[in-house]
Amino acid sequence: MDERLASLINDYLQAIRTALILMQKSGVSLPHTSAEWIDTNLSHLPSLNDDINYLKHGNGCSVDLPDGAVDFDFGRRGEISGLDAWRLGQFAKKRQETYGFSTDKELYECINDAINKSLIIPLDTAMYRLASQPVEYVLSIDSRNEGDQLPHREQDNVLTLQIHYFYATDLMLKNYDSLSSKWDKNQKLSRTDEVNFRIYMSSWLGFLAVTCEGYRKLNMYLLLNKERPADFQELVPRCNKLNSAINKHYDELRKFRNNVFHLRANTDDTLAFLALGEERISWAKSIHSDLKSFFSEYRILCECHYMFNGRRSEGEFGQKGK
After folding, report:
1. What is the dihedral of CA 79, 84, 86, 88, to 10 degrees?
2. Beta pairing class for 120-122 and 128-130
3. Which residue in 21, 22, 41, 91 has its CB near the most CB atoms, within 10 A?
4. H or E segment at 69?
5. Domain limits of the chain?
């Protein structure tokens, strides 16, 4: 690629990252999709930090950075690698640089040549991207200050475990408990309720096993001590208690999970887990309750950290204008 164009594109993409970090630090919740951005209301935010002006428009935004404005669009799936000839030309002018191009026409011809050589390829119907670099998404933006050990909420594996797996566990247990109460009251269930009862119980225990597996794989004790801010260490005693309790019947629960989420050859592992006298349902409910408390306290610590470290847009209370 022409060195002048490569330099311009590199500066443009870096300016987008800088603008997004500034927006995130200013309380703007960055979107996962362009449609989400269109629906975002920022009327409560007249300017960004340090009184830097910005203008939300359509699929994107224009931000008046100190060394020149940058205008960009979010891709349909939150891509931030998009570029086009007009934006590159405007970016150079706003920075009062030519990058060695004597006219706009020369710049556009250079861009078209790069497109014809497939050095720049389509990103969607209106934008292009560099063929030599992977697509970059909003999720890659990290506005943390140096030394901040708490990952962005989208990259926090503990929150991922809670949201994508434990929430499903909790929903299945609520449905299971509801039908259990119905049985206790009426001493019978309809045929449909009987089927649903088995589904809810199996799904609850299956998702619980997945959550426990994830909890163990994250090596939570070391994670809290070495990969999170110091105040998260208050969770260590609860973490140690959970580790010990999970280990009691983890292998049996894992085998039960395999029979739930994989086509089983027989019901031996299912029946073994549910064998009378093992009291494993009570154990599972106790583990569930402890996990729920752990995740709740972890989330509270996250919310406090977001609030006091300029990361309000990541918190539940910073999600304005949605």
Report:
1. 80
2. antiparallel
3. 91
4. strand 68-73
5. 3-140, 153-318
Q: Which residues pair with 122 in a beta bridge?
A: 128
| 62 sits in which H/E element | strand 60-65
Token duo for residue 18: 């800088």
Phi then psi dihedrals of residue 261, to 5 deg: -100, 0
Query: Angle at CA 213, nearest 5°, toward 211 and 214?
Result: 65
Rounded CA-CA distance 14/12 in Å is: 5
Q: What is the pLDDT of residue 318?
A: 55
Predicted model pTM: 0.77
Q: Which residues face 70 on adjacent strands? A: 63
* Distance, CA of 54 to chain centre: 25
Kindly give the parts of the chain with pLDDT less than 50.
320-322
Residues 6+ apart with CB under 8 A from 125: none
Among candidate residues 234, 237, 175, 179, the one with its CA nearest the CA of residue 207: 175
Query: How far is residue 159's CA from residue 293's CA, in Å, rounded to a whole number?
Result: 13
Helix (H, G, I), strand (E, B) or coil at 129: strand
- Tokens representing 261? 């989420």
**Tokens describing residue 256:** 């039960």
Selection from 273, 283, 276, 279 nearest residue 244 by Cα: 283
Residue located via tokens 């063929």: 131
